[in-house]
Amino acid sequence: MKQWVKKLLDQFDIPTDNRSSDPSRPAAEHKPLEISEERATILHIIDVYNKHLIELDSQPVRRVRETLDEFAKGLLSTDPEVADKNLFRFRQFFSSYRIDEYSYMQNTFDDFKNIIWDFADQLGEDIRVEEYHELEVKTHLDQLREAVESNSIAVLKNKSREFIDSYIEIQSKKEERKTRRLDAISKNLSTVKKQLMAANQSMRQDHLTGAFNRKSFDEMTKKLMSYSQIQSHPVSMIVLDIDFFKKVNDTYGHDMGDFILKECVRILKEVCHRETDFVARVGGEEFAILLPDFRVDHAVQRAEELMGKIRKEVFLQGEHKLQFTVSMGIAEFSGKESAEQWLKRADSALYQSKNSGRNKYTVADQALKSVA
Q1: Angle (CA) 154 158 161, round 5°
Q2: Is the same domain home to 222 and 133?
Q3: Is residue 264 domain-shared with residue 129, that is, in the same domain?
Q4: Torsional sign, CA 244, 247, 253, 256
Q5: What pLDDT, in 10s, does the model give residues 305-337?
């Protein structure tokens, strides 16, 4: 079995042999779990998609996650008929979900357009009103010129009086309109700003936990890398997984799983509480923390504080009482690597923690910092 396939199965807490699933069988009968690369690839796609779901009205994240978990289990079936049936169902589901996902993104974009369009439309209406009144002033001015050319004192006196009265009235109303317009524009700008901020925040946050999402994490990673290179300030990253999270879902249900995810983020934010600290949910039960101006030894102190706090807490949800642990990988930005290389070093340290017993942290190999 190729290493990437074994790593994928380990991530799903699926034994690569049948020893743990049936310890009573003789050792000679223990055979490795066989899975083709094609099926493992689809399993990987399901796993990646599961970690980047969007909360849709028609497809709630929890329900989609349960459906994808069923497909993943079906792919591991030794019965070819069951596996083929699951593949067919997965194709149908994926097509339907992609349509709903596209509709959601399109509607979100339309909301942005409508916010700006309404604001531009109101400004356009104000401009048209002003143009109308400017035309009115021009008309009165033309009439005054005609009175001057008529060589009639009576006509000139009447037209002058009419022009002055109308001009004063128009200018007075213009000032009133200007005051009202500025007040309205100020209020509309405030509303538009709030709407745009709310829409932007919605696109940047994970809907379940309130942590930043993967897209925001990728953007912030690049910003902090540039900051570090320009200012020569350190920046460190902690990536972490909730240990045996799949078993929590399988044993207690997704309600408890969601509760644990939210509680985990709460603790991460309590410990990493600086305004510049950045807590993101980058996968199903995977999180990442960016710590500007922190060298690796400072990041280690944060990791120890986090692990200690999580280990001590007892989480209550309904009738259930639960404790959990996390595994971590820590890496300081070298200044010479790409965002992918930096994250890969932290991820490698995380997997070292998981493969050596979990409930611990590992500092990334410093030698990898020299990778171009």
Answers
A1: 140
A2: no
A3: no
A4: negative
A5: 999 999 999 988 778 889 999 999 999 999 889
